[in-house]
């Protein structure tokens, strides 16, 4: 797949928006009427604060424009009723934000022969301010003949309402310079402006003047002071002001409680709430919501439930505002069921509540449920906001439904959020997760503003790929001046295709002092494991102060995947010592490690953990257990586990089919396959590996052909090189050399080493010298360093007594520095799980004399039964006596002798061998199984041989 070129990505950075809509308007309609009626009342004498205000050096807000008001002569009596109606109409327009209607009224005023009184001037200022036309509101104030505190307060309130706190403070300075004294409403509004602009210094200075002027007893001013200190983090000041107000009120208490809630100090908030109850002050729904906010921020579920109880007792549980806060609290605390119960009782949930419940379901892994609720919200006519879209898009990321994802993208455009960075970041992540990389990159390249989250989202699309785009994107992040965070480094490490680049990222991690972070440590371990650098991964593990479950699982799995099962078990034991409880992935990984080293003893120990921790029915663990018992030669235990599990997991069925096939029970493998189909479980490529292998071991040529062709014809599975190799094995072992050659030519497999090795093995079985020589020569060109190809050709020559040719092959190997892998067998004893290894003709074992004595006893019994060693399997040009000696000291026989003299051995002898068992040893083991009253299981390089009562499970066809 070709990806669009990533340009030198432009940075469209947005300036920070002013804080908007965080505070309620200072003046209701009733307040304004009150202000208008008392506009000429003098304010209480108080000291000047001009010295402090002047020091702010605030610039004037006076606009340079023409007058919007037409000046008139003295008013006439008949105009008073008009003035009143105009004022009322403008106040209604301000309340409804009806800008066009208000402008029309303003036009009527200018065209009439009427002179404005103070009420109408203020109504005009208030109207334009409330409708967001602040510059026009300022023009009206400038043209007002006699500005008073009410008109100034109306304008200041307008700026505060639009989130322009700093500009509101500038207006207050101008008002003070003109000698207008503030009233309690002005001071409350200016304190809100201080809060909005986080100017606590100005607020403190204003506080001192409020105290001197005697306005601290006013409820609005006192509450505004508490709110200012609380929002600015000055909680000690906030608490003092609240507790020492002459007349305490719920508003000031709520402001104080909100301050502690914002910093997550829910315990302090609860304590204050108790004090509030002691004062017999009646708390309201906003009080409960504020406490719930603190519980939500700190995720204190216990306290949240207590507040829920208070809401029930006070009868405010079904108040919409309280219910929405409860939904948010339960959602953030991860209790989706409780959140859903509360949500179901809300008659008309708003977009915030819908967003909270959708986000909760998404975070709890209930993505499909989240999509249902999103559809319900849309059907109810609620317009989604950017947070709704972010949550539902994140849920869609996990669904893997590209069509649904694209429909959400269309909704984003429809509702006008296509330029929202937060939403675009979620969309990029969604597309990258769904492997729709082009769509993700397209969104990224068209964004007006890309932040680090955007880059991280793009980088996430190249996790665990073989593309070099991940390294390029990481470099672009650095070039564009971004400082990578934890998520950047984790994505970069997961995108590494070479250990060299991984080490460069590791260097940046160290430079940023993030190498001790648990998540980055895990990503580093994973990167080194995938690069086969286990020692580097282990160094990271040893340096980590705290290792979590995911990190343990990563290193255990890495060791298992690199055939270091002993280390997997070692780390698993250390994890248990550290008190970390394994999950299903840890257990499965460790079981894979046991399978790799055929450690049945340790495998059984892990099995006990599986039972203890309740993962018996987990299909992932179940398949690992089946695989472990099967590879350790305990097919009966594997079969028993499979029969006890009720699962339609394809991997589980594949595992038992492959194990039956490997143990020589091909008929059982085919029977299980038929049952699998009747249950409606679709087979995959791995299934047919086991089926074709079973046909090969059973010599079922015709049936093998049928299964091979049904893969693509009936199940749409494209055969892999392994399937072709098995088909070559089926035909070759059946002696169908003409057909197999035609098959190889037709499928264009003549240059595949696996195919040629399989064919050479068939030539060895049938002694096909001519074809064997031709195949071997091709293999010597393709993989000249592989010893088994030389050995197989040498064995073909030896079987025909062509000793000169054998000598040439061995000389060729010697000249190229190629050594034959020595025959090696090993056994595990139950006590201590110790492994004993034996080489052919090896005399180093501390019990070798006892082993030889035991084997001599067995041979005497076998000779009495008519056993005659088949010396044709000794492919050396030596005397018959030496050939007998060589056969009697094959590694599998030494392992057998050791198992029999060991008093703690199992009822079943299990031997593992690195090479294929020879024909004479195969016959020998059949006879021994009859006289020792024990089953013998030998796993050679290709399959299992289960010897019992003089017979082998392979039926002498291997």
TrEMBL record:
Residues 63-75 have a biased composition (Basic residues). Keywords: Repeat. PPR repeats lie at residues 117-147, 148-182, 249-283, 350-384, 548-582, 618-648, 649-683. This is DYW domain-containing protein. GO terms for molecular function: RNA binding; zinc ion binding. Residues 63-82 are annotated as: Disordered. The lineage of its organism: Eukaryota, Viridiplantae, Streptophyta, Embryophyta, Tracheophyta. One of its GO terms (biological process) is RNA modification. It comes from the Eukaryota. Belongs to the PPR family. PCMP-H subfamily. InterPro entries: DYW_dom, E_motif, PPR_At4g14850-like_plant, PPR_rpt, TPR-like_helical_dom_sf. Pfam families: DYW_deaminase, E_motif, PPR, PPR_2. Coiled coil: none annotated. The keyword Repeat applies. PANTHER family: OS01G0600400 PROTEIN (PTHR24015:SF1767), OS07G0578800 PROTEIN-RELATED (PTHR24015). Residues 866-958 form the DYW domain.
